[in-house]
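Support reply, case 0932

Customer input (verbatim):
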Amino acid sequence: MKRALIILVAIAALAGPAQAQRAMAPAARAQLERGLRAYGERDWSAAIEAFRAGYAIDPHPDFLFPWAQATRLSGDCAGALPLYRRAREAATGEEDRADIERLIARCEEEVEREQPPPEPEKPAPEPEKPPPRVHIHRRAAAVQSAPRSRWYKDGLGAGLAIGGAVVVAGGVTFLIAAQRADDDAASAGTLDGFVAASDTADQRRLIGAIALGAGAGIAAVAVLRYAWVAHLSAREPAVAVAPAPGGGALVGVAGRF
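Our regenerated output:
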């Protein structure tokens, strides 16, 4: 009963401007209260039934938003879309209409994802290529290279790579927190609760995006550092020794000078 009273107070605050314009019929008001109690208990089907019955008695705009929310949370996003659009038309403020528009866009994306994707065309099989010819040399040259530095053991590159990964992980954590706030907003029974949760999600999403960008920048610097170390390593000379006719040996030096 305490939960129902809290929900009734919240919906009264939401419906205040609309009620100032036109009072709701008592029988419709009873159905609205019954639907809100079912909504607080997450009984979506009972809430939808009560909202539909009350709207049939008195098509008051106070029914539209909780009816749309209960319909979407029951898994019927396609059925919630027309209710959201009617609630958007009945909203009195630009900010309220913008918030409802975000729920409409989210529902439209979910409906589009539920549609089966078209089957891709199967590519024509490629003709088989003949195996490459292998040339075996009778005399194999023994190549001895001077020890080269390992680019992946560079301390500065490793520090940059680890730092970038930590910053990226922090950004992902904030983005996950923003998604949770979006979920809280999506399950809100009142428009005020939806607005508060949406603002929290936007703040966390902004911090996450900045962290991801910074982490990607640090990782890019680490890649450039590794590439530079590998470039310096490739310039070190290598010595090749091969047997020569007559029992001698040929010595060659290869590298970039």
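We compared this against your earlier run and they match. Two observations from our side: DSSP finds nine helices and three strands in the chain. The chain has two domains: 2-113, 149-239. Please reopen the case if you see a mismatch on your end.
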